[in-house]
Structures are given as C-alpha cells and as structure tokens.
Design a protein that fits this description.
Layout: H1 4-18, E1 20-22, H2 23-30, H3 34-46, E2 50-53, E3 56-59, H4 64-68, H5 77-87, E4 96-99, H6 103-110, E5 118-122, H7 125-131, E6 137-141, E7 145-147, E8 152-154, H8 156-160, E9 167-172, E10 176-178, E11 182-185, H9 190-199, E12 201-207, E13 219-222, E14 229-233, H10 238-246, E15 250-254
Parallel strand pairs: 4-5, 4-9, 5-6, 9-12, 12-14, 14-15
Antiparallel strand pairs: 1-3, 2-3, 7-8, 10-11, 11-13
Helix pairs in contact: 1-3, 2-3, 5-6, 6-7
Length: about 260
C-alpha cells in the first residue's frame, strides 16, 4: 500500500500536469476514501502547493504561467537542450513531423528555423507560438481540452485530429520510462493523444532526459516497443542503457 507521503507526491504530480483535480477522481485513482484525499489536500494546501476548492483543488498560482506563456516544468534544462540539438539532426526539408507537448519538444521547436516546406503538427500552444511566424513551416494545431500547466491540448478531440493524417516522424515526450510499466504519464487524458500520434507516424522518437528513466507515473501508454528510437542525455546510467538493449530499442546519447 502506498504511504501517505508517497500518495501526496503523486497527487501533486497529477495536479501539476492538469492544473486541478477533483476529490472523487483522486479517491478512485488512489483507491482510498474521499476523507483521506481531503486530508491529503489539506496537508498540501498547508505547504502552499495547492488551493482547495469545493470538491477538489487547483494548483497554487494557477494560470500565471499561461499569462507569461511559460511551462511550469523547467528542470534539467541543459539536458533537454542537448537532446533537442541531437533531435534536430533527424529533421529534413519537406517532411511532416509531430511535436508532442513538453519542455524538451519546446527546446526542439526553438531550433526549427531555416527549413523549407516543413509541416509541423502539434498539440502545444507554446510551440505553435514559437513556430507560427516561420515562413518555411506549415503549422497545424490540434483542437482539444486546454491544460494550463503544460500549455497543451489534450483529450479525445485532440486525438481525433490525427484520424486522417500521416507523419514521417513523431517526437514524443514522456513522464517516466520503466521496465514494468513502460511509458507513463501523469494524466489519463494524454493517453489517447499519444497513441493517436504514434499510430500515424512512420518513426517515433522519444525525447526524454535521463531522470525520466526508471521512474513511473499514473497512466501507462504501453511498452518501450512503441518507440523506434530514444534520445536522452549523457547522464544516463549503464543499467538504463542495458534496459534499452534488452528491449531492442535504439538510443542516442546527447552530450551535455
């Protein structure tokens, strides 16, 4: 059984991803009573992390990042920039690529200049703003439900956008890479979108810094076999590299 401190950490992971959470949903997710969840939320509010509202809670200072149009997750940025520099080498004129939402894919978007007739499809509004004025890029943005912490569009409508699309390459983000759980994410609403992106792409490149390896989040998308190639950073351990080899997943190590 998950300890209270671990459960609260996971609750915060969920709220940081979606910006809010309902007591009823958290109770179902963690298989504890609503009374227990309310106690957890009270503790988190005392720490200044959330603000409780009727039936749930929202992230403290929710929406400030939207006004600034910045992502909340700014950890390991040097590693993410290195991964982006490696990933840009895989993109060529005339291709259709999908950029998933996330801080690493945002760094990749910042490098996308000087291309000709490149089509980019994304569910990230911040990436759309970065690329929107580039005349060499044909930009497409999904619909869907807006999530303020990640500045992304998610849910079934976002997934349905990909129904009649073909992409050469997908640059996919993840919250965790684990031997047992595979690719995991903090929010269940992301799963249909990620799956739809994978289904329409010839090549799937997972861009994930080394801190994601060996960790798990709530919702499992599936096994590592869903991706063709992983791009990570030079802090990766030998054990993690062996994991990739065991699953016959190709990987590239970006040097910091």
């Amino acid at each position: 059984m998950m300890l209270a401190a671990q459960r609260r950490d996971k609750i915060m992971e969920f709220i940081r991803e979606d910006g809010q959470a309902k007591v009823q949903d958290l109770s179902h997710l963690f298989k504890v009573t609503e009374v227990t969840i309310r106690q957890d939320l009270e503790k988190l509010e005392q720490r200044g992390l959330i603000t409780r509202e009727h039936g749930g809670a929202v992230l403290s200072n929710a929406g400030l990042n939207v006004k600034d149009f910045t992502l909340l997750n700014q950890k390991n940025m040097e590693a993410k920039k290195a991964i982006a520099r490696e990933a840009i080498k895989l993109i060529h004129d005339g291709e259709t690529i999908i950029l998933d939402s996330g801080s690493t894919t945002t760094e990749l978007a910042k490098l996308l200049s000087g291309f000709s007739n490149l089509r980019v499809i994304t569910n990230a509004l911040n990436i759309a703003v970065i690329l929107g004025s580039d005349l060499g890029i044909n930009l497409n943005v999904t619909g869907g439900e807006f999530k303020s912490p990640t500045l992304s569009l998610t849910g079934v409508k976002a997934a349905n956008y990909f129904a009649d699309i073909h992409a050469d390459k997908l640059f996919l983000a993840t919250a965790g890479i684990n031997l047992k759980t595979g690719l995991t994410y903090p929010s269940f609403s992301d799963l249909p979108v990620k799956k739809a992106m994978i289904d329409v792409s010839d090549k799937v490149y997972l861009v994930a810094d080394s801190t994601k390896i060996g960790t798990s989040s709530f919702a499992s998308l599936g096994a590592l076999s869903l991706v063709d190639h992983i791009i990570t950073d030079s802090n990766i351990t030998e054990d993690a590299q062996q994991l990739f080899r065991d699953f016959d997943v190709k990987y590239t190590i970006a040097q910091l």
